[in-house]
Specification:
The chain contains 15 helices and 20 strands. The strands form four sheets. A nine-stranded mixed beta sheet has the order 4-5-3-2-1-12-16-18-17. Helix 11 packs across helix 12. The radius of gyration is 23 Å and the shape is globular. The two termini are 41 Å apart.
Length: 562
Amino acid sequence: MYIAIEGCAHGELDKIYDTIKLIEQKKSIKVEMLICCGDFESIRNRNDLECMAVPAKYRHMQTFWQYYCGKKTAPVLTIFIGGNHEATNYLQELPYGGWVAPNIYYLGYAGVIQYKGLRIGGMSGIFKQHDYAKGHFEKSPYSESTKRSAYHVRQLEVFRLCQIKNPIDVMLSHDWPNGIVNHGDCDTLLRRKKHFAEDVHSNRLGSTPAWKVLHQLRPKYWFSGHLHVKFSAVVHHPASSKEQKNQNTTTKFLALDKCLPRRDFLQVIDVEADVDAADSLMYDAEWLAILKETNQLLSVSPRSGVMPTEGLHEKWDYSVNDDAISNINAMFEEDLKIPENFTPDPELIHHPERHQDRPSQPQCTVNPQTTELCAKLEINDPVMTLLQSQDGDISLNDSSFLTSEHDDPPSMIISNASINPDEIDLDDDDDDDEDSEDKVEQTKSSESFVVVGKIASDGPNLTSTPVSKSGSQCEMSAAKKMKTEPSRLLLDLPAPVFDEQRDEAATNKQGDVPCTEKPNEESPEVIDSSIPPSECQNSLTKKRVFKRRNADAYTANVDDDE
């Protein structure tokens, strides 16, 4: 089964889907799933833009709203996690996951689902130590502080993920697991991103909770975005005892770039799947059982807490047994298919022809998809819990399952002080300062960079070959520990169109820095492509350029930006 992996989408759904379509045509394959590693930007309207943590001058409608209202439909099943540039108010309605548009599914704060036997997990947001031990206390309308803290990873989701015992095939995170750079070609990374050096040498680059989850779950593959550079690595795990269900000893890691010309933003891989399985997303019974088992640990307090710990709490192991999993199957009557119950709200549909003088943050809302799932599992909806804790006269429906013990569960210790207030200042408030030295060349002959690869059961394809303007190739390997000697084929795919005046001004800016690494003898085939802009002139609508956070320039439909 072919699946496409995207780094940071930044709302560029049309370009991503068009690229996948062209790859399918060139290679005569069918991509069955697109996985996005955060910064998806599911912006429905201009009020949602007010909830995105970027300065006002960078808030622009992209193309997701057309998928939300039904003008367009995602041509391939799309799964994504949240990053640090999102419509926080919308995603907060779906803490346990749900459909944000037809055929586009969000994994929630953390989640595990299945598709054709492939077990996919993910954790949304980025790591900041000062918010890690807090509850989910933020709600719209946000302050400038809570607008950012709302997308910071919390210990509850990490604790829940660490209770998983059955093997995971694919894991997603927005920021990289801390320490992953030590398992790949760090020298090449630092040549491309020189400002990473201080954090790499002090071991502060990436998320320590994600690194913990990686070692606990030992997934076959781990994909990330956030740092806007391609990087691959292989993590070797010690052999497991025969009693453990997860016997995997290797995790292949791949981080990808954002959707821009001459960037490694997409890779297509071939993974093993159950060809006889139903062509639909499925809930994961073990994950649902863990949600139910840990329901009492949910906190909506801004104070820091401590998760159940061995030697500190009477109960500290919240993993589930086969009986608990069987109970979930019984509750769902042996049908774990995720219901396609998305319905757009007519009042939230964007109308580009209408001028809105003063968009404002909407009020916090409960999503019916979350209500339905919570009712079935008999667990608490975090948003409903938050509203009830801050507004005593709110009317609750039968699906809220709020209990008197929830607000201060006996298994959690609450303190007023945050644990270790030091934070890692990477791509949060200042987000992409690193891109000042990594500007995209946007000349009339600019090229787009797409990677197509194949991952076989015996190892991943995590290598790429950049194609220069002259057509010469400069080899890159996945990591020093991986040996490959890939065969390559050049594909001619279209690039996004950019403004000619802006293109001319950008000719003197520094592009990607090519580099050379040792070839690898074991990895499967890799196919790279350069995308000349001439092929897509007729397929794209009239464009104009505007400045945007995280990039030199993006394009948008003129009508969408009025």
